[in-house]
From TrEMBL:
Pfam families: LytR_cpsA_psr. Keywords: Membrane, Transmembrane, Transmembrane helix. It comes from Winogradskya humida. InterPro entries: LytR/CpsA/Psr_CW_biosynth (IPR050922), LytR_CpsA_psr (IPR004474). This is Cell envelope-related transcriptional attenuator domain-containing protein.
Length: 370
């Protein structure tokens, strides 16, 4: 049995999990602390968030905005970046390797998670402001094109949101951009999570030495498991923060990126469950540290709604079910040079855009991930 003490040089966190801290953990605080305490902590959170109103202002990308949250269904777009420390200084551009649509049902008791494959081929529209003429390629490159020439995260998010909207027809009431830096401490503040591994899988980033010591293999990313690879064995257990993060990255399997998408969605659910049941919310010190870290790592467009209102106004989602949905039946749909959306996935996007997702899923129960 490998030594599960914290290994050397753990990889940076997966992209999207910060949203759960800010838009899951925060939401659940309301019933615990009361109005005064919640607003105090929200002030600490929102003070560090970078915001813009330019991304969802484009016609068609953002839904109608009245300056307050809609009463009915909502769609949120999460863009998780593959940014690494030092990339900006080197002039390297980030890609949105995680693209997640959160569809909040009108009843606000269900949140559907729809992952858009990073290799899905899409039309990336032209952006005359940066001299970009448009292209058709993998959708995760849209953010990189939009952020070039000094346009930064707002330019990247704007072009990525347009590409997602053009692909799916979905309009958004909010957008969150998340990158790798500084995340690990957030999950450490939660003390890890309980995860279930559904099949044996190996890590392309960690190795185990003869004494059972786990360490990060600098620069390694093999396509076949080395003899000293770290394996995640089938079964349920409490995972340390680094283990849970690595599990969310595993993709070397017959289902490849679809396993990675599923692991990400599993981690979101595990974090939500722990945040609402493990006493984290009754510990002001932990909440304060988590919110400060979350605030510094989040970038948002709340579509004209004040940030505090955007977060605090969704407190009713604390008890909502997070329901993962499969695109392309959980298998790569090769169209040459990337992946295409199957007819069923196209219908899924259309149903989400029309706020008819509940009815659609009644006819397609196989899309739900148990």
């Amino acid at each position: 049995m490998p030594d599960t003490t914290t290994p050397v040089r753990p990889p940076r966190a997966p992209l999207w999990t910060r949203l759960l801290i800010a838009a899951g953990l925060v939401l659940t605080m309301a019933s615990v602390f009361g109005i005064v305490s919640v607003k105090y902590f929200l002030g600490r959170l929102t003070g560090g968030i970078q915001t813009t109103s330019s991304v969802l202002a484009d016609s068609g990308v953002g839904g109608a905005s009245s300056g307050k949250l809609p009463d009915g269904a909502m769609n949120l777009l999460m863009l998780g970046l593959d940014t690494r420390a030092g990339w900006e200084a080197k002039g390297e551009l980030s890609r949105s390797d995680t693209i997640l649509v959160l569809h909040i049902a009108a009843s606000h008791d269900r949140v559907y998670m729809i992952s858009i494959p990073r290799d899905m081929v899409a039309d990336i529209p032209a952006d005359p402001a940066i001299g970009f003429k448009g292209t058709r390629e993998k959708i995760n490159s849209a953010y990189a094109y939009g952020s070039q020439n000094g346009r930064g995260w707002t330019g990247g998010a704007k072009l990525a949101a347009k590409a997602v909207h053009n692909l799916t027809g979905i309009t958004f009431e909010g957008l969150v951009v998340i990158d790798f830096d500084g995340f690990r401490g957030l999950l450490e503040a939660m003390g890890g999570v309980h995860m279930c591994v559904d099949k044996d899988m190996w890590s392309s980033h960690y190795v185990v030495d003869a004494k059972g010591k786990v360490s990060y293999a600098e620069g390694a990313d093999p396509v076949t498991p080395p003899s000293n690879a770290l394996w995640f064995k089938k079964g349920c257990r409490d995972m340390q923060p680094w283990e849970a993060l690595e599990f969310s990255r595993l993709r070397h399997s017959t289902n490849g990126d679809y396993d990675r998408q599923r692991h990400q969605q599993q981690l979101l659910r595990a974090m939500a469950e722990k945040a609402t049941s493990a006493g984290i919310l009754t510990n002001p010190g932990k909440v304060s540290r988590i919110l400060e870290a979350a605030g510094s790592s989040l970038k948002m467009d709340t579509h004209g709604v004040p940030v505090a209102d955007f977060v605090f106004g969704q407190k009713g989602l604390a008890a909502a079910d997070l329901i993962p949905i499969k695109t392309n039946a959980g298998a790569f749909n090769d169209v040459g040079g990337g992946e295409g959306a199957t007819p069923t996935t196209q219908a899924l996007f259309q149903a989400t855009a029309a706020d008819k997702l509940d009815d659609f899923l009644l006819t397609q129960p196989g899309l739900l991930i148990s």
